[in-house]
Amino acid sequence: MAVTMALTSLLVCSDAQAVQVLRNILQDMGIVVESCGDLRMARARLEDGHYDAVLVDCQNEPAAIELIAQARNTPVNKTVVVIAIVSGLNDVRAIFAKGANFMLYKPISRERAAHSMRAARGLMQSERRIRPRIPVQANTSVAYAGEENVPAALVDLSEDGIAFRSDGKLPPHCKVYFQFSLPGNTSLIRLSGEVMWQDSSGRVGIRFAQVPQTSRRVLNDWLQANLAAAAEVVLPESQAPSSDEDASLRLSAGLGLLSVSAGDRRNLSRRACCLGAEVFRANSRAATRCTLIDISPGGCYIETIETFPTGTVLEIVVRTEDLKLRVHGKVLSTHPGFGMGVEFSLRTDEHRKQVQQLIASAQSEPKLL
User: What pTM was computed for the model?
Assistant: First the structure.
């Protein structure tokens, strides 16, 4: 069973009551929280580590905007989800323009903040999944928790993480230290990371924690060169898509959106959402309640504790104020205790119409509270 990948956040706020409310909400959602009441210290943390979300109190608006801009200009945090904590005195338009994704208004209400954070979590998960991954074959050794020179085989690589195979099981969320060279490159890369997940096959997912500038340059140059090469991949005829939506879904594999398994292929046009739904297995009346956290014309991601095996045929039912939408699909990837990636089955015009209506429902979801 895979270890659930933990999302991380940096909460930059000196208001003790707001910090307590937001910390409780984030922890209830399984998001790791680091609190920091000093903006200068927060800037240092953004330089040193990666976060999935940054919550910034904009009481000192110029300093908060500077912090948001810094996050956007830091390679390891440039796609971080920024949540601005504002009052009626703040220039909301200016804060949005500088890179904020969501606004939380003071005084912080648990109910309103929880609703916004659910939408933000969907975007955080989407941003994590769309990072381009490049397959890589190289042998290395890793060190962790008192173990030295443990053999490992690199599997794939992105700008913020790496996957490898190991014969032994690593402790959950432990620090791992690497030293390796990439194919076609003699420069040595040294970095450290944290275990985010691992599965029964020995595959381990690492999110980078500290990457020296020299190693970061070598890593980024290699990724850019290999992303360009991956774009020239041609799919064999046996995998030729059967519709425009399937073509969009499958083409992502040739553009470097590759993970260890084909089930991790993603569509480039996914949109974060937060839609309550029910999922039914084929020929079953038993409903599993779940949440759609992102969607595209070719598929969606379903957040649910109860997951189904890859290949399971599903019917997804979403009820809105005006419609009851039914969309058919099959499970492409599954992450036990977390959720499933689903590819839509679009065989008729009615199926396509249902998906477009579902996307329209997602687009009508408010992001600003």
Answer: 0.42
